[in-house]
Amino acid sequence: MMPLTEIDRLKRTVTSVWESPVADQVAAAWGYPAGTAKWWRSSASHVFVLPDPRGKRYLRFVPDTYRAAGAVVPVSVLMHRLAASGAAVVSPVPTETGSLTATVPTALGTMHAMVVEAAAGHEIDAEDLTDDLAREWGRALALLHDGAASLEVDLPDAFSELAEIPDRFTEDPALVEATARLADRLAHLPRDPSRFGAVHGDFELDNLAWDAGRATAFDFDEAAQSWYTADIAYALRDLTGPDGEPDATRRHLVDGFVAGYRGVRALEEADLANLRLFAGAHAACSAVRIARALDSSGADEPEWRAELRADLTAMARAQRDLAVAVAERG
Predict the structure, then answer these.
(1) Model confidence over 276-310: pLDDT tens digits?
(2) What is the dihedral of CA 78, 149, 289, 279, to 10 degrees?
(3) What is the pLDDT of residue 61?
């Protein structure tokens, strides 16, 4: 997530009809006239809807101070190559000059942007998940891993946030010690091509659109080089409890997901045994991302930001406790 202050800066430019002069400046790189882009949400990226006679699209952009072009371009390349190969992912839309991304100077500073096609279908949540859909969800992730395995894309390594914890959380020695244990275990895992490669990074249900029982993926903001099992662990977060283990009432859905994945790609029991390790490592990284997002508060903080800050603070505590619990159990 971007810093709350950065989200607030953009939000203050949004009018009562959901338009923003900043979004207008960015959308112009794709030939859209002012007033076309309508604000949708801001989290890891600012996202605006682009009504278009050729089909709805989404404008996504981030400030250079949060994510440089060198991080945005490889994601667009990965999505483009996957879509071109027939994978069920949304496709980037080229700018008027033919590039997949644009770097645009705006009133709020330099922005790196991408436009993507809307995914057909609708979103579902964990309460709507059936055994068949869980199996298809796992199958979809396996197909994405298969499609990305042969692609050479300069993505960052996952779990880089772990290195920040000793300096960022000096007042929490238990978390620092837990992170050291988790990082040591990760360092000893094999990285052969059958286990490690380009991953989506956030294959949760809210980043999928379902149409006729098939899932299309979007939101590749967290794409990285990682273990495929780590991607599975992150996807299944809504089906696991505060200890990183599958929730007892949803165990059958986890089993369905794994069965669907195994219908496409091999997944050894030794790899599945690391799901909890990856859940703990992801939790520690989430604590770092939330800390970055919280940045500083002020006396003039708007109500929505104060409420979101409180929610994120509680979430960070839960993620911290999960990381510690996983490390302590070994």
Answers:
(1) 999 999 999 999 999 999 977 666 778 888 899 99
(2) 150
(3) 97
Compute the CA torsion angle 134, 139, 144, 145 (nearest 10 deg).
Answer: 110
Which CATH number is 4-117 given?
3.30.200.20
- Give this prediction's pTM: 0.93
Using the predicted structure, report yes or no on whether residue 188 has a pLDDT greater than 80.
yes
- What are the backbone dihedrals phi and psi of residue 117, each rounded to the nearest 5 degrees, phi first? -65, 150
Q: Where are the alpha helices (DSSP H) in the chain?
A: 4-11, 21-27, 69-84, 131-149, 165-168, 173-187, 228-235, 251-262, 269-272, 275-294, 303-329
Q: In sequence order, what are the beta bridge partners of 112? A: 62, 103
Does domain 126-329 fall under CATH 3.30.230.10? My reply is no
- Contact between residue 153 and residue 236 where contact means Cβ atoms under 8 Å apart: no
Where does residue 214 rank: exposed (0-12), middle (13-18), buried (19+ CB within 10 A)?
A: middle
User: What are the sequence ranges of the domains in the chain?
Assistant: 4-117, 126-329
Per-residue pLDDT tens over the stretch 251-272: 999 999 999 999 999 999 999 9
